[in-house]
Design a protein that fits this description.
mainly alpha; 6 helices; 54% helix; extended
C-alpha cells in the first residue's frame, strides 16, 4: 500500500532510526555477535537469543533496583551496607561481566543455594525501615530464623520466597510508586 504524505516522513525517520534500508534489509554490514562470539541468528534461534537478553536485562534491572531500594530504606553508610547487599547480589552486585549461565540466577539452582540466597536477601532487608517502621514484620523475621535451619522443605522454601518477594514488591511500590522488575528464571535453551 502507498504511504500517505503524512505517513511517509514518519516511516522514513523510523527507518533511519532503526538503520533499515528501504528494501527492508539492515544497513549494518557487520556480522551479529554475542559475548564476542560471531553468530548467525536464524528465525529458529532468534527466540533463544531474545530470551537470554531479556534474562540479562531483568536481572541487571533487579540488581540496580534492589540497591536503590536498599539505599532509600536505610540510613546506614553505603560502606556498612555493602557486605549485606553483596551477600545477596554477589561481589559484582548482580552485574555480571560474563555470558549468562544458570549460576547467575539470583534465586535459581538447587534448594540449598536458593535457601542461602533467600537468607541473604532477608538479611539485607532486615534493616529496611519505612516511616521508622521495619519493612519485615515479626512473622517475617520468625520465618527468616526458620530458614537458618539446615532442614527446610521445598514447600517452606517456596512459601518464604513468595513472602519475601511480596514484601520486596510492596516496599518498592511504596517507595518508588511503580512496580519493580523481578528477575527471570534462566532460559534453558538448546541452540545458544
Amino acid at each position: 500500500p502507498e504511504l500517505t504524505k503524512k505517513q511517509a516522513p514518519r516511516v522514513d525517520r523510523m527507518r533511519r532510526f532503526l538503520h533499515v534500508d528501504t528494501d527492508g534489509s539492515s544497513v549494518y554490514r557487520q556480522p551479529a555477535s554475542w559475548w564476542g562470539k560471531s553468530v548467525s541468528i536464524t528465525v529458529d534461534d532468534a527466540t533463544d537469543y531474545r530470551a537470554l537478553i531479556l534474562f540479562e536485562l531483568s536481572n541487571l534491572s533487579f540488581s540496580l533496583e534492589f540497591r536503590a531500594l536498599d539505599a532509600a530504606l536505610t540510613s546506614q553508610d553505603p560502606n556498612v551496607r555493602a557486605p549485606k547487599v553483596c551477600a545477596f547480589l554477589g561481589n559484582d552486585l548482580g552485574i555480571h561481566g560474563s555470558m549468562p549461565c544458570p549460576g547467575h540466577v539470583l534465586h535459581g539452582g538447587n534448594d540449598e543455594r536458593r535457601r542461602l540466597s533467600l537468607l541473604n536477601m532477608g538479611g539485607a532487608m532486615r534493616d529496611w525501615r519505612r516511616n521508622s517502621r521495619p519493612v519485615l514484620t515479626e512473622d517475617d523475621l520468625l520465618v527468616l530464623y526458620r530458614m537458618t535451619l539446615s532442614t527446610v522443605s521445598a514447600q517452606e522454601l517456596a512459601l518464604y520466597e513468595q513472602r519475601l518477594a511480596l514484601v520486596y514488591c510492596r516496599a518498592f511500590v511504596r517507595t518508588f510508586d511503580r512496580p519493580p522488575i523481578i528477575p527471570r528464571i534462566f532460559p534453558y535453551l538448546g541452540a545458544v
